[in-house]
């Protein structure tokens, strides 16, 4: 039975409303305190960092937007590189969707489905504006960075890597999700070869040596903008320029999982300066969005040139299905097979709006203030027992330093890798390690004190093995919702527990 004329009119009105719909989150949903007018810089007195009290109060107001920190006996949370806590507006949107807006997106023509589709698709526009890319269809929703890296790896191995001598350049800094997919694809398809970009002893990419290694066989350069262990911010524009100047067709992939919450990207400006990545991937839960959602920016010119095939086939990416072949949607739907994390994606848009309202310059200064305060107080408590962790990889891959070098004679030794000493830029992540006790013991005893930090290889085994030359480490990762009081307490507890464990394990239990 065909729909009546009245039904068609109602449907057309809804479609018209769909095309001009503007998703808006009310100001009350996204309240962030007013930033101080006086933009103070970090200052130091005898090595101790100082920042204006107005800046501290500004971020304490923002902290009030996170329900987690209002709970009774709230832990001191320093594991934000693993996942961030969520503001009330994000939790509220997630609850609101499942309480009163839950419907599947696309194809549904009833009002609630159309409303869900509008909200879902509006997030593409939100991300597009936030990173200032050219087109909304360059934004592909994923379940996170691991999904995005596997997706782009599969597409490039299918369309770009054709010969055994085609090169894929990675670094020892990478998360496993930017190493293992390439290894497996190269092994299974018997084409392409992986090369590792040299690092300086500070943990930054050696750009001069990178430039020498790029050649006409270089097809892919895939790097993390920020290491999830060291926290170093790589000189992304200089790296991309070096690659593109030597081989303009080389595809540059940026893993932005650890950088997206701390750094603002302006892709159009980068494109104008010939230093724009071809692919940029991020995870929502690393920037205050729910778990299980993320996005991949895939440059439109790349999609048009290579006609990429999807990783998964099924619903949502089909136009017609025949007995023996099918026709598919255009990107981005082509790469979004199956039912997506609709509530997560919509809430991710709210999280981005929340971040956008925070003063970026203050955020960077405040986070570095917290980081410098942590290093300062650790130094005050441990004195010469706090040692810069040696490390570094030469061009040949050998170590230019290691844990077997000269060590202080202090009864307690705690090593850190602090690239701030050399003037390097970083996000507030600090790895800790000792040759006198296990990092797992340190983290366990901190947990008894209601303090949360992480230990292990942090899904960065090559970095620990080949660069730092250690089996594992503890990691402190700060965020703008942490307070100076928490950081000072953390330093006191780390120093106290380190002394206790060193005394228990004198003689070097590793």
From TrEMBL:
The keyword DNA-binding does not apply. This is Aminotransferase class V domain-containing protein. Keywords: Pyridoxal phosphate, Signal. Residues 1-22 form the signal peptide. Residues 77-379, 435-489 form the Aminotransferase class V domain. Pfam families: Aminotran_5 (PF00266). The lineage of its organism: Eukaryota, Sar, Alveolata, Apicomplexa, Aconoidasida. PANTHER family: CYSTEINE DESULFURASE, CYSTEINE DESULFURASE 1, CHLOROPLASTIC. The keyword Signal applies. It comes from the Eukaryota.
């Amino acid at each position: 039975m065909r729909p009546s004329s009245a039904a068609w009119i109602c449907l057309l009105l809804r479609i018209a409303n769909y095309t001009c719909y503007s998703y808006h989150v009310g100001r009350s949903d996204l309240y962030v305190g007013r930033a101080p007018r006086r933009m103070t810089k970090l200052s130091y007195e005898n090595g101790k960092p100082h920042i204006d009290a107005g800046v501290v109060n500004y971020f304490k107001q923002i902290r009030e937007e996170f329900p987690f920190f209002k709970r009774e006996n709230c832990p001191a949370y320093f594991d934000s590189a693993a996942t961030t806590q969520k503001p009330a507006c994000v939790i509220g949107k997630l609850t609101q969707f499942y309480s009163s807006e839950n419907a599947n997106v696309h194809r549904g023509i009833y009002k609630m489905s159309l409303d869900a589709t509008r909200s879902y698709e509006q997030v593409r526009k939100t991300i597009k504006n936030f990173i200032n890319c050219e087109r909304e269809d360059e934004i592909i929703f994923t379940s996170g960075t691991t999904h995005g890296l596997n997706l782009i790896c599969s597409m490039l191995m299918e369309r770009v890597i054709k010969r055994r001598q085609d090169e894929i350049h990675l670094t020892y800094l990478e998360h496993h999700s930017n190493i293992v997919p390439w290894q497996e694809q190269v092994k299974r398809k018997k084409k392409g070869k992986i090369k590792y970009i040299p690092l300086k002893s500070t943990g930054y990419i050696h750009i001069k040596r990178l430039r020498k290694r790029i050649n006409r066989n270089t097809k892919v350069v895939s790097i993390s903008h920020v290491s999830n262990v060291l926290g170093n911010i790589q000189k992304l524009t200089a790296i991309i320029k070096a690659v593109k100047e030597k081989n303009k067709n080389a595809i540059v992939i940026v893993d932005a999982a650890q950088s997206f919450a701390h750094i603002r990207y302006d892709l159009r400006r980068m494109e104008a300066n010939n230093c724009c990545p071809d692919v940029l991937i991020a995870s929502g839960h690393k920037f205050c969005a729910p778990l299980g959602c993320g996005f991949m920016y895939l440059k439109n010119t790349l999609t048009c040139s290579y006609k990429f095939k999807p990783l998964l086939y099924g619903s949502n990416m089909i136009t017609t299905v025949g007995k023996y072949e099918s026709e598919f949607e255009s990107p981005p739907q082509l790469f979004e097979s199956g039912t997506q994390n609709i509530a997560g994606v919509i809430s991710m848009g709210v999280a981005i709006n929340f971040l956008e309202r925070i003063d970026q310059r203050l955020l960077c200064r405040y986070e570095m203030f917290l980081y410098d305060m942590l290093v300062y107080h650790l130094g005050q408590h441990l004195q010469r027992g706090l040692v810069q962790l040696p490390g570094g990889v030469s061009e040949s891959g050998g170590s230019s330093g290691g844990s077997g070098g000269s060590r202080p004679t202090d009864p307690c030794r705690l090593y850190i890798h602090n690239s701030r000493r050399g003037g390097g830029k970083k996000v507030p992540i600090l790895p800790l390690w000792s040759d006198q006790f296990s990092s797992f013991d340190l983290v366990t005893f901190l947990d008894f004190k209601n303090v949360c930090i992480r230990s292990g290889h942090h899904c960065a085994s090559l970095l620990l093995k080949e660069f730092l030359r250690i089996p594992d480490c503890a990691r402190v990762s700060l965020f703008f919702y942490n307070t100076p009081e928490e950081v000072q307490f953390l330093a006191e507890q780390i120093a106290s527990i380190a002394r206790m464990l060193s005394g228990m394990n004198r003689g070097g239990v590793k």
